[in-house]
Design brief:
The chain is α/β, with parallel strands linked by helices and 447 residues long. The protein contains 19 helices and 16 strands.
Amino acid sequence: MLPAVTLLLELPGVQQLLTTTPRSVVTDAVRTVIDVARGAPYSAPANDTEWMAAITEQVTVRQLPSLRRLINATGVVLHTNLGRAPLAAAALRAIQDVASGFCNLEYDIATGARGSRHAHCSALIAELTGAEDAMVVNNCAAALVLALNSCADGREAIISRGELVEIGGSFRVPDIMAKSGATLVEVGTTNRTHADDYRRALSPRTGAIVTVHRSNFTLEGFVAAVPPRDLAAIAAEGGVPLIHDFGSGLLLDLAPWGLSGEPTARDAIRAGASLVLMSGDKLLGGPQAGIVAGRADWVGAMRRNPLARALRVDKLTLSALEATLALYRDPARAIAEIPALAMLTAPVAGIAARAEQLAASLRAAGLSASTRAVDATVGGGAFPAARIPSAAVVLEVQDADTAAARLRGARVPVIGRIADGVLLLDLRGVPAELDAELGGLVAGALS
């Protein structure tokens, strides 16, 4: 017969738990342990010590936060499922400074009157991109909805069929655009769209031309597309704005580090787009945000749109974004201090040396570990064809899936990848200061 809840609550160890843990949490844990034992009586705890261990484990599980820190050893640096860009130390300090008290979120210190949260970051974004004005909303999809609603609500928005992409999580650009109130007018074909396709679609009903940078896949072969500079001229002919969903948020040319072919935000502004939309948490390396840069009249129209209030960001996002953007005033400092950029540009020789050291420490702990040269990827829908030389620790285990599950169950989850039947820990996305912790977590989970 299984013990009653009240009996288990009287165990000395449980009484000790109650001094530090809410009674409701402990009681629910006890009930869960009993229910598990009822469903599997042959493996039920056999004595007070085993009951106590099961209850303690269940209490620990119940108190784990839903959103947790983990170590990204997948080799995908800007992994969307793992939170994309980690924040720079300057951004973390800015969040702490602003969050610990009050701030001038919507207060003009100079005049003592009400201010606007849209004023924050706008001058800095304009400075870094060459735009006339800028504003920040909560993500790039929100920026697209707000831009279209401000420019083409009840009117037509022209877009190439080759740019009606899915951006992850089953969210599709045409679905997002439709919610803006604009009517989509598709031109061209999946693989080829020409300037005359846009010109023929222009009419008195046209509210905007939209171009979406295909940042998360490539089209090769018999393809044609109209570059943004030519689209800007066509939009001007029709007297409508060109909205450029630029996506990645790249502010610096990364060609010196082997990452080429992706335009920068300044390139997009120079090409003549009326509004350029990008993400804050991809290649820019900041918090999740949708950044709008462009002509002052259209940015102003977006600010005045009632939807802007629904899509606005909070003080923590603004503080982190502003601190991240400020680092770009010194490109060398941005490369060194913005984690995403530092990871993407780190010399492979240093990563390989770290992998050798980590493998040696794991062998000393009794594990079978070696190293391998691998290719990492950027992630975050940027540089889709790029392969970045990296190095990984190879964990030679009997069952890679089981080992991967045990690493995910570590105190700080470790997320690797399985390739050719072996478990790899790619260090391209692991900061060097975490190597010792990573080694301890792996040894603890697999030894």
